[in-house]
Amino acid sequence: QVQLVESGGGLVQPGGSLRLSCAASGSIFSIEAMGWYRQSPGKQRDLVATITRRGSTNLADSVKGRFTISRDNAKNTVYLQMNGLKPEDTAVYYCSAQRALDGRNYWGQGTQVTVSS
User: Which of 25, 30, 102, 111 meets the CB 3.0–4.6 Å disulfide criterion with 9?
Assistant: First the structure.
């Protein structure tokens, strides 16, 4: 199995910044892609950003220009730099990883991000 541990969430003022981290461990072998999703109460889990092993990125329109996703393959870690945070960014942020061996997806436990005055 693959374990994912997120960190870096918290409470920030509108316009503030946070940096989320997610480290993968366990029976990894190779991770093809990692990403971030978020979910607010009463809403579905939506994609925020993804990045492949080679560094190709994809971001949701709502976060383009504000968020940046990056990864350190040697450390099996993905990051999400969140700038210009808005109240609507408030959600539980979940890390995901796709194992290259079989294409299976794994999920972290989530980290709370709250943007409020």
Answer: 111
